[in-house]
Amino acid sequence: MWHEVSPIPIKRRVKFAKGRAYIDGRTKADLKRVWDSWDGPCYECPVEVIVHVYEQLPKTKKDPEPFTVKPDIDNILKAVMDGLNGRAYRDDKLIVHAECWKHDRSDEIVGEFVLYDVKPLEGVE
User: Fold this and answer.
1) Distance of CA 69 to the CA centre of its chain
2) Can you tell me the distance from the alpha carbon of 77 to that of 10, in angstroms, rounded to the nearest whole number?
3) For the purposes of burial, counting CB atoms within 10 Å of the CB of 76, is it exposed (0-12), middle (13-18) or buried (19 or more)?
4) Up-side HSE of residue 115: CA atoms within 13 Å toward CB?
5) For 75, phi and psi rounded to 5 degrees?
6) Domain that holds residue 62
7) Alpha-carbon span 64 to 47, nearest angstrom
8) What pTM did the predictor assign?
């Protein structure tokens, strides 16, 4: 079952102040939105995570160029995986397969958002 998060969650760099590392408020809010979007079970077995990112192409982008604009795909995937840690799976070490795809938003799809799914690996549960 697909789950939606909007706007697109992004994992940002860890910040440092007074010798301590911390996560900024925007990243915390993104991780909470991902956490709140999950209504499935918490898996205890190996899982796969599949993420589809829908974003409007900039007007300067020419078809059929690949969708290569920010945010970086690894930062989106990391936000989804970290936001689901302890909620969709006991620990993110259980993720054995991950896919993330960027798509330009077509005219019939409104907004910029992420669709994701987490499921047990085939034959394992």
Assistant:
1) 16
2) 8
3) buried
4) 11
5) -70, -30
6) 3-120
7) 33
8) 0.85
Query: What SS3 state is found at 30?
Result: helix
CA 21, CA 16: separation in Å to the nearest integer?
Answer: 4
Residue 96 has pLDDT above 60, yes or no: yes
Whether 68 maps to a domain, the answer reads: yes
CATH of the domain at 18: 3.30.1330.70
18 C-beta neighbours (distance < 10 Å), count: 5
pLDDT surpasses 80 at 106 = no
**46: preceding bond cis by omega (within 30 degrees):** no
User: Residue 1 and residue 55: Cα distance in Å, rounded?
Assistant: 21
Q: How many domains does the chain have?
A: 1
Q: Do the bridges between strand 113-120 and strand 3-5 make them parallel or antiparallel, or are there none, so unpaired?
A: antiparallel
Contact indicator for 79, 27 with CB cutoff of 8 Å: yes
Contact partners, residue 63, CB within 8 Å, separation at least 6 = none
